[in-house]
Amino acid sequence: MQLRRPIGAFVLIAAMSAVAAAQAPGETPSAPAPAPATGSDEPNTDDYRDVLGGEKPTSPESSTTTSTTSDETPMTGTGRFGVYHDSDATTVMRGLATAAKEWGHWSLTTTAVVDAVTSASIDVRTSPALGKVDVVTGASGQSSMTGGQMSDTRYLGTVGVGWNDTSGHALNLTTSAASERDYASVSAGLNGSIDVADRNVTLLGGFTVTDNWVSSVLDSTLHRKMFALGWSGGVARVLTPTDAVRLRYDGKLSDGYQASPYRSVRFGDWTTTTLSTGQITFDNTIGSADGLPEKLPETRLGTALTGEWVHALALGIGLHSSVRAAHDSWGVDSLTPALDLRIAKPTWRLQLGYRLYLQSRASFFEDKYTMDPSMYVNYSSDKELGRQIGNLASFDVATAISEPDSPNDARMMLFFHTDAFQYTYPGFDLLPSRTSVFIEAGLSWEH
Amino acid sequence: MKYAWVFCLALAAGCTHVRPSQRAALKNPAMRFEMEPGAAAQRDSILEISEGATFRSAGSGTPGVTCRCK
Predict the structure, then answer these.
(1) How many domains does chain A contain in total?
(2) A233 with A204: CB under 8 angstroms?
(3) Residues spanned by the domain of A55
(4) Nearest CA of chain B to the CA of A282: how many Å?
(5) Which end of chain A is more exposed for a tag (fewer CB within 10 A), N or C?
């Protein structure tokens, strides 16, 4: 059930990202990095990947002592369990499992994700349809609505294939399919990179296509589609022995139904009453107190520019800073500065971060549409399209709990991850602020 | 946006050259743009549905150009 527009992306993106993480460069079939400090100046397969790449489980120290002559690495994998809860009465329990295997220059990764959602959020409680329904149970048994609280289960599977020649050329293809009671999605992405200038520079590019099918548990006649195309290009560069930067341009074009079939907009200088069931009703409205289904433009083009800088404070201690500026055709602008401190030691890693989010409202969004509906072309009660100020504090820690017996073995890592979010919505009377926390723990087998 | 591409080209064409033997600090996991990509992926999935102007890159993170290509 679509608590928020397109909430199905929650599970889809997480799983696709899990594939990306599982196929991190540290898991490429190439031999672990030789000792860099005393080696020659001839570039090798690992000279650059550690700067721009993803998580590589072996520490710099341990990586200097291991080698493998086999093209085949052991299977790696991750099991994660996390809980999200927010002050808007939404809870999500997530289980995620990933398995990855590499053969020579090729790799294969599969991921499965299950999300179990319960919610009595402001979108549910103000929905004239959902709020009045006592029990709605989907034929599949996946979703239900009882006493002002909905529940739903989402499933997703992802397969990714990667190719890396270990000489600075890489290509990755990922496909995914997701399903929930009233939302289905399929997606594919292709991206690649090329190292140049003795691997001091990496050129990046990629695109994704996603097709979405939207329906409603309350209206069996509603069947709408939304297609999205994403693209990205950028460059990363080593600046000094202790500094690297990356600049990336991202775009996304969405076309089709982008509203929520459950969200309605009331008109006039309305007031609200909260019933004992939690349902919120509206008084003093222009027209029906149930309002009208929200109406959004069917096309949206968004672009973003992100700059990043990572600086070594000392060996094993890094400071990462970034700024993202975004603009879209609906008039939503945002600015996102972030800073995080990382420590990576042979048997443990730690990361502390803070991120600020500032957003302007969409050009058609109003906290209250005080005139007759006929005066508006588009209207929405989606608070994420209004002004937003967000704060995020994050904490990640990982520690090795078993070391490999041989270079071709995987080692086991235990990790813990938590994010604390706080959003304010200036002018949005129905929900002035929201606080959320996501806590996750898991095990990974890494090579 | 054209200025961004100009900046990209300038960045790519910069004259600084860091030799492999000078990259000891850069090779540490703490110096990766995504040190914990799994955790970042989970975080980003929440951000995208919580923020009106946040969407995932087609080249990083999700299918993950920078995340898994090196």
Answers:
(1) 1
(2) yes
(3) 8-263+298-363+382-446
(4) 25
(5) C
